[in-house]
Amino acid sequence: MKDRTVYTAPAELRNKQIVLQRRTEAPDPAGTGQLLETWSDVGDPLWAKIEPLSGRKLWLARQAQARSTHEITILYRRDVEEQLLSWRARRLDGRVLNFESALNRDSLNEELVIMAIEEENR
Question: Does residue 28 sit within a domain?
């Protein structure tokens, strides 16, 4: 029998709960021919580490022409990594973070580090 190690989130990964949302587009029911963008919650809330970028991390992000404002670390999800721009995170306090780029930390499929841009209040 093979040893199967189950990865569990370290304590520092659990500072905020988020709900992942996926973007879908559908034809305007009014018949305008335009596609309407909607966001739907996917699954239950999950724990994530969310850090606002500051200091050196913010400076490095700006050097790469990124507009990122936050770094989000979640347990690895292949679906999010493969179609990153179709996803975003909604914090339970209502703030929304749009995903910009992601890194599969150490290519181990354990953690996904996502650079995100906080949506301004509408």
Answer: no
What total of structural domains would you count in the chain? Answer: 1
Give the residue among 100, 96, 99 at the shortest CA–CA distance from 121.
96
Burial of 74 (0-12, 13-18, 19+ CB in 10 A): buried
pLDDT tens digits, 2-35: 444 444 555 565 789 999 999 999 888 888 889 9
The whole-model pTM stands at 0.77
User: Rounded to an integer, what distance in angstroms lies between the CA atom of residue 79 and that of residue 75?
Assistant: 12
Q: What is the pLDDT of residues 55-97, one digit of tens each?
A: 766 666 565 556 888 999 999 999 999 999 999 999 999 999 9
Backbone angles phi, psi at 64, to 5 degrees: -90, 15
Number of other CB atoms surrounding residue 19 within 10 Å: 15
User: Does residue 5 lie in a domain region?
Assistant: no
